[in-house]
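F.,

This is the one I mentioned.
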């Protein structure tokens, strides 16, 4: 890559998500936010017709410019470059309903972002929400975005990280029952997560990341009184990571680790299960708790809310989360670029 003093603005694809949900509305709001064009070169993978419909319910005037490749985009404020993935009967799309066409469009948008990412034509992808029921209607086996991106890019892993102010919260498990999640958090699995976190954070310029591992049981099990997972799995995982030169600490009880972490004391926290980390971040700031997926050939960010079918098409959807998602994934794309250029 060329060294230059000019700020690097990553080419960033924003996928529209399920067109029957709030995706089109929050994409319009995001593309009309001046801070987005300042930090990156954004374009939409979606439907021009649905964006125009969304702008109408929002009471906004937009200029949509269709492109067939990111190289054709102008990346200028005041107009939205849109790369379409097919000729769809968008007139049949009904706001707020599970429907096969909406599911197929959402999947097509994702797959196009992957195609462009693998081709090196985008540096970052920010995704609006999809509906799991809709994508299942068109034969998708994966439970959600993360698994689709991992499988379609043939990535060895896809680490989920919550970004919320100074917190970077990773997860040992995500969509798994609590009892299964506890059994899943073995020494080997936790150690592997810590290794991958260490690798990814080094790749964006954090040379010696401090990684705090959360406990599972109340008070870390209190020496086995309330569970033994810390003794049998977590302490050994941390010690093994330390033996490899990784700055791992813990396990630290789940009721205090996030409060300590919000001061910036740790570079990352490894949550043992879905709700442990989600509750902490969403309580701190729901709208600015966004997801970053690590381990892919490109940086991927996402809102951490759903398609909100109950308010879709009403012009009241909040675009703060997609704006934040886009900014955060762009931030890490810039850091990755600077590290690779050094």
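My design for it:
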């Amino acid at each position: 890559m060329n060294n230059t003093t000019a700020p690097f603005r990553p080419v960033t694809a924003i996928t529209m998500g399920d067109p029957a949900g709030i995706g089109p509305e929050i994409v319009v709001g995001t593309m009309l936010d001046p801070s987005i064009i300042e930090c990156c070169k954004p374009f939409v993978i979606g439907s021009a017709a649905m964006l125009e419909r969304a702008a109408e319910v929002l009471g906004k005037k937009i200029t949509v410019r269709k492109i067939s490749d990111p190289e054709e985009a102008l990346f200028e404020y005041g107009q939205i470059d849109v790369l379409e993935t097919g000729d769809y009967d968008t007139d049949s799309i009904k706001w707020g309903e599970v429907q096969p066409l909406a599911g197929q469009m959402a999947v097509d948008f994702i797959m196009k972002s992957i195609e462009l990412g693998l081709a090196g034509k985008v540096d970052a992808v920010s995704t609006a929400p999809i509906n799991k029921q809709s994508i299942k209607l068109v034969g998708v086996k994966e439970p959600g975005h993360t698994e689709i991106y991992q499988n379609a890019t043939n990535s060895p892993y896809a680490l989920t990280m919550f970004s919320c102010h100074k917190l970077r919260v990773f997860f040992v498990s995500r969509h798994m029952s609590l009892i299964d999640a506890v059994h899943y958090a073995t020494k080997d699995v936790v150690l592997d997560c810590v290794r991958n976190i260490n690798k990814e954070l080094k790749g964006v310029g954090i040379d010696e990341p401090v990684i705090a591992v959360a406990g599972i049981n109340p008070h870390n099990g209190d020496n086995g009184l309330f569970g033994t997972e810390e003794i049998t799995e977590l302490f050994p995982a941390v010690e093994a990571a330390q033996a490899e030169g990784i700055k791992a600490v813990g396990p630290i009880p789940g009721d205090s680790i996030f409060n300590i972490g919000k001061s910036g004391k740790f570079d990352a926290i490894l949550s043992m299960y879905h709700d442990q980390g989600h509750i902490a971040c969403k309580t701190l700031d729901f709208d600015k708790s966004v997801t970053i997926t690590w381990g892919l050939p490109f940086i991927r960010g996402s809102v951490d809310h759903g398609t909100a079918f109950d308010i879709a098409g009403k012009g009241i959807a909040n675009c703060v989360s997609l704006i934040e998602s886009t900014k955060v994934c762009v931030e890490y794309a810039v850091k990755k670029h600077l590290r690779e250029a050094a």
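Residues 166-284 form a domain with the Isopropylmalate Dehydrogenase fold (CATH 3.40.718.10).

Talk soon.
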